[in-house]
Fold each of these.
Amino acid sequence: MRTSIASRGFNISYRAEGAGTPLVLLCGWSRWADTWWDAGYGDRLAKEYRVIAIDRLGHGESDKPHDPAVYEPRLIVSDIVAVLDAERVDSALVWGFSMGAENAAALAMLEPARVSALVCGGNAPVPSPAGRREQVLSAAEFVSTVEGMEAASRSAGLTDEEVVETLAHNDPAALSASMAGTVDWEPAAVDVQAPSLWYKGSDDNPLSPDDLQLADRLGVETHLIPGASHHGSFLRADDALTIVRPFLEQHRPSAAAR
């Protein structure tokens, strides 16, 4: 079921399906809640969980302001909390992919009581490489037009059909602002209390030895999807679910706790 709530004066749209333990799904940049169903996750997870998939501000059916300041990660977290409050969810399993993984980790940092376990796909709350700020701002400027957005989508491996759908569901200026708003803050794994799992495609930017050492020190479970690119690792729902499902089941609150 599609519905929406007001947060900070903006409309935040989300899709809720299923029953049982709440599972929040946070999509990647330029994606929207329904893409979890399109890729093969939503229906399967909704048989086991109460799935709440959110269109981040600037994406899908949520409002699309053009001011980067409204996309600061702490404010995006407040939108997620507003959805949880509207759904009367005190704590949830949280699974984010790519930019959604950044949002998920930020939620776990800033609102630890709301996250019972954290899954980060295609991204992880590890130190960024040098020059990240400049790279993000350059990319944000590039995608601020329809032409730039189309080129970026194709370079990310989206099909012609996916590119058309992406442009139909989004506003390039809003997507650009959503990127620019993230440049001065990033989540840190050491500040995440929730049990965590990170996974990436083997053909995506790999976790460094230092990242893996950090994960090991913090007790974070890590996995690779063989032969998968960044976008490809999201599309490979069977492989991702094989990795993530046991983790979710392990950290599903008991009936007594619920």
Amino acid sequence: MSTDNPLITQLRSIVGPTNVLNEGDLSAWELDWRKRERGHALAVVRPASTAEVASVVKACAAAGVSIVPQGGNTGMVVGSTPDASGTQVVLSLTRMNQVRALDGANLTITVDAGCVLQSIQDACEQAGFLFPLSLASEGSCTIGGNLGTNAGGTQVVRFGNTRELCLGLEVVTPQGEIWDGLTGLRKDNTGYDLRHLMIGSEGTLGVITGATMKLYPLPKAQLTAFAAVPSLDAAVQLLGLAHQHLSAGLTGFEVMGQFALSLVTKHFAQIKVPFQNTDFPYCVVLENSDQESEAHARERFEHLLEVAMEQGCVVDAVVAESITQARALWHIRESIPLAQAQEGLNIKHDISIAVSRIPEFVRQTDALLQAAYPGARLVNYGHLGDGNLHYNVQAPEGGDAEAFLRDDEKGVNGIVYGMVDQYKGSISAEHGIGSLKRDKLVQHKSPVALDMMRAIKRALDPHNLMNPGRMLSIK
């Protein structure tokens, strides 16, 4: 790209010459995390402040150049990388990575959008507080991206998605104006809730530059168990018992199919997975956080497991005896996506179903997929506590994974999403829509809802400059 492009020259004057990249290897910004698509950017721009973001957006708007906001680029639906036109500016917020304020009395932390999630967790823990959002990608994803996709994670069962953890936002509009909504108020009934409009909008309505998030007291004790269960029905029964016996102490409840766990063993031999090579089709990892004491937490946890074994919904279980052991058990669950990537290309589904209906959904959908694609391997795991499954399909053993993805993805998606509709679920629970599911959204979302969404997009971004082609088409 010629360096005499007037927009490039203007952007360099705003953020500094070294923070406008338009030459060399830009794959860190142009290639999506799953390596499914590679775009080509006009430039990657790296502002260091909200004022710089606003100036960049104004310059791009004046030039009629569209913007792709990007955080850690860990998205799963090709929603934060540029298209192949070479005309879009990638707005990378990773230089905006400061904790602005921590208000212990108000139980809030205010941060830049480019703060890495794990850095926020660590800052809160050092101050004696818990920030409960936890994802497998927390070492590289950013809070702006988490908010843009309304990310979920492993503690939604207790604390909710990112949306429930946010009390305020700072946003740069498509016109380059700054909306400061970082009040940290828990009650504010002064009109439409713009914060909730921006959360989950995937950068299509504005650029999130800052956020005020909720904090919680650190628990006195946190215990983790890994349990083998005889069926998904038993896992749902165990979840009910956990709610009954642990109440708000239940902060995590994840289910993992044995094939998903076998991939962890296969590709990460150093990770020791309990109950491998057994007849137990599923395992569950569950977490109990207690505000009283470790002794109290252990007593309640062990009583829960005793009751569960008596009722037959748990066959065997191990309870971590230390923080190190607990992290090792959680690491098993968090390693499944990486193990599946090591196994090869696959067809991913991030779906949600009412918890009570999940076992029957899985039985029926498994059978339909096996009948249509003999030998296809089902990698089923996820957040059973909130009804979110990562219901993924791997090519048959020894098969051509690229051909399977190319030739059979449409048919596999048709079966899975058709069953999701039948069970009144959602085709995207926590990953968002991006460009990968944009056409599917039209097929599975109410026309009335789509019309309302398009009206909002047209009103706020009339020139369609904010992440165009993502989530929905407004043409």
